[in-house]
Structure prediction request, 1214 residues.
Amino acid sequence: MTIFLQLVASGVAVGMIYAAIAFGYQLTFATSKTLNFGQGEALALGALFGLTLVPFTGYWLMLPLVLIFGFALGAVVERLGVRPAVKIKSEYGWIMATIALGIIFRNVAENIWGRDDLKFPSPLPETALSFEGIRVLPMELLIVAGALLMMLAVELFNRKSIWGKAVVATSNDIDAAGLMGINTRKVITLSYSISAMTAAFAGVLVAPVTLTGATMGAVLALKAFAVAIIGGLESGLGVIVGGLILGIVETLTGFYISTGYKDVPGLILLLLVLAVRPVGLFGKAVIKKV
Amino acid sequence: MAQSAQALARETVPPAAPAAAGLGRFTGLIGAALLVLFLAAFPLVVTSQYYVHLLMVIAIYAILILGLDIVVGYTGQVSLGHAGLFGVGAYSAAVLFLHFKLGLWWGILAGIGVTAGFGLLLAIPALRVSGPYLAMVTLAFGTIIQIFINEMTPLTNGPLGITLPPARVIDFSLLGMQAPWGAAGRKLEFYYLVCLCLLLTIVVVNRIVRSPFGRAFEALRDSPIACDCMGVSVYRYKVYAFVVSAALAGLAGALFAWSERYVAPNSYGFELTVLFLLAVTMGGRKSRAGPLIGAAIIVMMPNILADIALVRIMAGIIAAVALVILAAAFLRRQENRTAILIPALLCIAFFPATLAMQSVTDFRLTVFGLMILFVVYYLPEGIVGYIREKLPFLRPAHTGEGTALSSSGEALIQQGGRAGADPLLKVEGAVMQFGGLKALAGVNLDVRPGTIHGLIGPNGSGKSTMMNVLTGIYKPTDGGVTLAAGAGSGKRLDGLTPSDIALSGVARTFQNVQLFREMTALENVLVGLHHAFHGTIFDAILGTPRRRREEREARARAMAILDFVGLGSLAQVEARNLPYGKQRLLEIGRALALDPVLLLLDEPAAGLTAPDIAELITIIRKIRDAGITVILIEHHMDVVMGLCDRVSVLDFGHKIAEGSAREVQADPKVIEAYLGSPVADAAE
Amino acid sequence: MLDVTGLAAGYGQVEVLHGLTFAVPKGQVVTLIGSNGAGKTTTMRALSGMIKPKAGSIRLNGREIAGLDSHEVARTGLAHSPEGRRVFPTLTVEDNLTLGAFPRLTGSRPKGDVSADRERVYELFPRLKERRAQLAGTLSGGEQQMLAMGRALMLRPEILLLDEPSMGLAPKLVEEVFRTIRRLKEEAVTMLLVEQFAMAALGVADHAYVLENGRIRFQGPAAQLRNDPAVRAAYLGGSH
Prediction:
C-alpha cells in the first residue's frame, strides 16, 4: 500500500506538468482553433535558457526572465507559423509550419547546448521529505505549487483584466469580439505568448527532476495533448484532472510493468479517447450545421 | 460574377484546349518512358555503388511517398504515422529473417500484409477525427510503434537492431545453375527489383486514383457531408485509403530493410515522418512526378549539405534573389512588402551564416524546417503544381482513359408508376431537439409522388433542420420518416445513415454549395454515379474488362446528365472554377446521378441572377416531369409560387399552414409569421 | 451621419448585394426590411467590417470606413448588435457590458464614465441588473437580446446597428424590445434597424428601405409604407 501511495505521490508532480502544457494548448485552441505542435520545444528551450541564466542570476531571479523569454517565443511562433497559414485558411499549413518551427528550435538548441542531456541544479535540498513513509522531493512540491500558481495567475488575468476578458471573448465568439473593437489578431498572438510562457515555465520546473536537453519536451508535449483531449480542448480545468490521472497511471506502469513502457498508457489513452469520444471526457458534443 | 465567367471562358473555351488536354495525356506516358529508361540505364552509366544505392533509397522512399500522397493529397488527411508504418514494414521483413531465416520475398509479402493490418488499426481513430487531432493521433501511433520496437527485445532484438545478409532476389542455386548475368550483374538484381516495385507502385496508384475509389477519396476530402449524401460512405473509403497507403509503406519498409541490411528502432522516428510530409508537399500533391521529385530532394539534401562550398554558393544565390525581390517590392511599393520582409531578411541572413560556419551538417534539420516553411507559404501546390500552373499543357487531362465525351443513355431514369394519392414520403411527428431548443416540434408532412412540394418559413423556422432529418444528417429526437418503396410497403428512413438514405433513393443539394471543389464537373457527377460501380479495388488495380466497361458506361451517363443540366460543355472544368450559378446546377446534376425517387433542393435559387433562375425553373420542371418528386426549400417567393404544387409553411418548428401556393400566400397566419403582427404594435 | 453609396458585397464568389445606396441621418431611425435572403444581414455585416465590401463607399461622419477591419470600424463609433445576439456565454453579464466599452477602456475612444454608462444600461434593462453576476450563456433569449443591445450601447456609439432584434423571441418580448428601441429613439440615438417583422419595424422607424434580392426595391417614410401592399408582396411574392 505504501508503495502504491508512493507511486501516486510521484505521479502527481509530472501530472501537473502535463496539466500546465495542456492548459497552454487550450489557450490557443480557444482563441484561434490552432495549436503549437512545437510546444515541447518551447518547454525545452525554456529549461535550457533557464539553465544558462542560473549561474548569473540564481534560480529565483531566473524565473521571470524565462517567463519573458517564453512570452516572446510564443509571439514568434504565432507570427511566423500560424498567422500566415490562418490567413490562407490552410489547416495543413499551420500544422506543418508549427512542426517546422519546432524542428528548427530543437536543432538550434542542439547546436547551442549540445546533444547530451544536462543536469539542472535543484534550487531546493535534494533529500526527500517523508510523510508517513511516503517520500516526496521538495522539488516535486515546488513543481505542483508552481504549475498551480501559473494556471491560477493566467485564470485571474483572464477574469480580471480587460485584455484577459478580451481573450475570453475571442474564445467565445471571434466575430462578436471583433465587433466590440477587439483586435482579435493581437489577442491570438497574446494567447500564443501566454501558452508558450506556460510551457517554458513548466520546462524550468520539471528540469531539475528530469534531464535537460533539446529533446526533453517532445514526448511530454504529445502526452500533454492526450491530457488536453481528455480534459476537453475547450473546457477549463479538466486538464488538471486529466494530468493527474495520466501522471499517476504512468508511474504505476513504470513500476509494475517496465519503465520502457511508461509513455505508452498516455498515447494509448489519446488513441482511445479520440476513437471513442473526440470531444474529450469533459467537452460538450458540438452539432455540425450544414 | 461576370468577371469570373470571363476568366472561365479564357481558360476553357479557346480551341487550343482539347489539344492541350491531349498533350497532358502524353506527358504522363513520356514521363513514364523517360523514367524507365533512366532507371534501367543508370547503373550502366554510373558504376559507383554509392550512387546506385542512393538512387535505390530514393526509389524506396518514393514508393512510400506515393502511398502517403493517397492519404495527404487525395483524402486530405495529415498523417504523422508513416515513419512508424515504414518501420513496421522493415521490421516485418527483418524479424522474419531473424527468427525463421525467411528471405526477401517473404519479407516483402509480410511487410505489405502486416503493415496493411496496422494501417487498418490506425484508420479506426482516424475515422472519427481529422486535422490537428488526426495529426496528433498518427504521431502518437508512430511513437508507440517506436517504443514497442525498442522494448520488445525477444521479438525485435531491441535497440541493437537486426542485421541482414545480402539480399538474394533469385536463388539460381536452387535451379542448379549459375546466374546468367554473372557475379557483377547479381549486385544489380536487387536494384532492378526496387525499380520494378516503384514502377508497379506508380501503375497501381495511377489506377486507384482514377477509379471510383480515387474519386471517393477526393470527394471525402472536399466535402465529407456531400460524400455521404451521394451514398459514398466516408468511413469505408477512409479505411481503404489508409490500408492502401499503409501497404505501400510496408512494401517500402521491407525493401528498405533489405537494401540497408540493417534495421534499428531509431531510424523510424518523428524526423523521418516530417521529411516524408515535406517530400509529398514539396514535390506536389496528387501527382506521380511529385513524390519522385520529393523523394529525390529529401535523400539528396544531406549530401548537398555536407559540401560546405556548394552550400555557400547556393545560399549566396538565394540571398541575392531575396535581395532583388525585396528591393523591387519596396521600390514599387507593393502591398505585400511588409509581409515578405521577414522571410526575405532570413534568406539574406542565411548567407553570412553559412560563411561563418565550418559545416552545416549539424543544421540539417534547421534547413529542412526552413524548407517546410517555404513550401507551406510560397509553394503550397509543390513543384509539380507550380509547373502545371505556369505551363498549362502539362496539366493532367481529367478524362482518364479515352475522351468519352459523347453522352448516351437517358439522363433521368423515369420514376413512373408512382403517381397516386398515397404519399411517397410520410413524416410523422418529427421532433428535433438541440439542448433546450426544439427546432422541430412534431411536424407531419405528406409528400405526394410526382409533385413539387414547397417548404417555406421565416429564418429559424426549422426548414433546414427538416432537410437534415430527412437525409439522416440529424437523427430525429422523436417521430418517423417513411419512404414508400415499391408496392404498398414503406421503408423507414429515420435511423439510417446518410449514405443508406441516399442509396434508398433520396438525393439532395445543399444550401451552401457542397461540391467536390478540386474535381471536374464530370467527376462530380461520377461520384453521384458511384452506386453504378460494382468492381472491387482489385478490379481497379488490375484494370479488368468489367472495370473498363463500368467506367465507360458511367462516363457516358454522366455526360448525359451534364447535358441535361446544361453543363455539357463545361465537363472538364474543376468545380471551384465554375461560376456560382453553374455550381448550383452541377449540384443538381450530381444529385440526379443517384437515380433518386425524391430530390431535396435546399435554396437552389439563393444568390442566382434572374437568367440563372429562369434556367433553374425549367430544369426543376423537367425533373418533375420525369416522375421524380421534388421537395423545394426556397426563400425566393416567385420561384416557390411558380413551381410548387403544394406548399407547407413552418414557423418555430411547427407547421402553420399547408395548401396550394395561392392559398398559403393569402393565409393570415403566414402573413403574420412573415411580417409580424401589426395589431400588437398598434396597441402602443 | 451614415452615407452608403453603391455598396456591393457577398461571400466568396457569390455577390449578395448589388449596389445599395442609402443614408441614415443623425438622430433618426432607419429600417431595412425585406424577406429572407434579401441581403439585410449581409448589409449590416458589410457596414461593420465583418465582411469586406467588393465595391462602394461607406462614410461615417464623412470618414470612409469601407474596407476597415471590424475592430477598426468599432473604434470609429459604429456599434453593431449582430443577428443571433452573439453574447459571450462564458462571461458574466457585467463583463459582457464592460467589453462593449473595450475601445474606451483601451484608449482608442474617449473614455468617459464607463461605470455610469453601465448603470444607465441597467436602468434601461432592470432585468440585467438582477443578473449582473450570472454567465451570459445562462440567460433566456430575451435577456440575451437586451444584453446584446446594452453591450452595443456601452460604446457610446455614433450609430447603433440592430440586426434582427426580435428573431426567435416570443411576441411579448418582441414588444418589449421595440419599446426599448422607441425609448432609445427618444434619446436621439441614431439607429439602423434590420427586421424581419416589417410591421413592427415600420412602427418605430422614420424612414424605410425595402430590399429584394440584394437591391433596394423602393423606399419612403415609414408611416407611408405601413399600408403599402407592395411591402407584403416583397415578402410573399405576387404583383408589385
Summary: Residues 16-45 of chain B form the longest helix (30 residues).
